[in-house]
Amino acid sequence: MKIQILSDEMASRIAAGEVVERPASAVKELIENSLDASATEIFISVEKSGTSSIRVSDNGEGMAPEDLNLAVERHATSKLKVDEDLFRIATLGFRGEALPSIGSVSKLQVVSRSPNAPTAQKLCVEGGKKGEMLPTAAAVGTSIEIKDIFFNTPARRKFLKAPATELSHICDAVNRMALAYPGVHFRLEHDGRTVADYVSVNDGKDRLYQVFGREIAKGLAAFDWRQGELTAHGFLSSAPLSFPNARYLHTFVNRRYVRDKVLTHAVLQGYETLLMKGQYPAVVLFLNVPFGEVDVNVHPAKFEVRFRRQSDVHEAVARAIRQALRQEAKEPGPRSGAISSSSFSGVREVALPYGLSARTAPDNPAPTYGNVFTLPPRAAAQEGFYSSMRVLGQILGCYLVCASSQGLALIDQHAAHERVAFEKLRRQMDAGEVAMQNLLIPQTVRLSAGEMMLLEQKLDILRRFGFDLEPFGPDAYAIHSVPALLPEGDYSQVVRQMVADLAEVDTSSKLREHLEDRLATIACHSVIRANRMLEMDEMRALLSDLDQIDFATQCPHGRPVLIEISRDELERMFKRVV
Ligand code: ADP
Ligand code: MG
After folding, report:
1. Is residue 3 in contact with ligand 1, taking CB distance under 6 Å?
2. What pTM was computed for the model?
3. Fewer CB within 10 Å, N or C, the chain?
């Protein structure tokens, strides 16, 4: 590792700005340096939420004395050799600005030793003034101490938040790095107390348990996806587990944590209608793209990136998430249902295994043992999850009560109908056209002048959804056909709502984005609102329909279709067990 000072030309191309905004930013920069130096152990110790001191020690490759001397200079980096490197950044750092920036606002001490150096060297910088380098005793690696951050910039000190807040930023910074580098041992201490100690693990899932804790981690399923040079893998929550904010939504690009609108949007779009409005999933997404495909030199703290082919990335990520969720809905791991996002105690909304879990050969070959024994193929005709339930009856005109293999199952018949209708529509839409029914007697829908104008522009789009309309006088349209799925009735309301919905959709790409919402609108109107007693065969048909579709556990607005109460929970409710 040889450090050099970047040419003025290179330095001027580097996104300038505030690198050290708060103690957590310094922690982040130091950890990045340790990771870039191939450390496998990184110990962080802070006092008074980092305002009094921050120490980061690693067992990485250290710095030779001449490198150490340069490291604290501006634009001194070992990570960019030639100009083109700036466009294919493979390291976490690249600007050579962290150490000098930190050194200018604190009392910085760097102790470092490279593997073949006889001793370590110590170098101090205080308020930007570099001291003399002195030999000292230390193991191979680097240990950096920052004291009294912002001691000479009172304005910045004043902007620091409450100690608990600053500490939580530090924890977040450590946790994000830890998620991306499960093979590295991270330890964080605050005021002498160990806050986190994540020993090195081989499996990212184990790191997830360390960082998120058991309660959350066990609810997440691993996914893995590849398309050409793009790969996406990580962990995600399936439907019933959700949160009121994006706290558990983490996106990484080439192992760098980023807050990227495109990625977040793509992830949420992948969830489509599985979440209620305002709810967020737990997702840890690791996206890997060729280094040349992503520009990380756009934000001073390197929290943002720019993709060369943004829409491809967006589409790929949304697809990866959607496929993972579909897979999860079909073959939930043992974790499913373990987590309750409802405030009920004892009762939970469950993402249950449903449908046939017969795996298809190319995706999941049956395990073979030395090519000698092959597992027998699964029994072909297994009963679906929903169909296998015994229907006990219907209550309050809207809930089916069933006996499931786990215990008691309650199904919201409206939510179930909506989800079934929605999935049918989506399939038809994917196949090119929605099945229509012609009306023997066209219905008319009266519209305001504004609605008339809007509708005129949306006729084509509406046709794709199954609505065939023709002008009928100056202030009305005649409805000739509607989606076959809609029951007999007055269609003017659904048409009016579609027109209002489509008002915001001006281009066809926007339409794709909002397609799900439109389909949900139609699905919603396809359900008979009034509470109605169902015949036994209608109930059975509904259950078997649920087995035929993806995502049968939530209605298109994200409400649960099913609530299951297990034997355990019943026993707890009746205080048979405590
Ligand atoms: P950058 O990481 O952008 O190169 P920094 O100011 O963070 O800039 O660090 C400057 C240089 O100091 C790095 O390029 C690296 O060579 C060296 N360095 C910093 N921290 C460490 C460390 N923990 N271990 C080894 N080398 C380090
Ligand atoms: Mg750095």
Report:
1. yes
2. 0.67
3. C
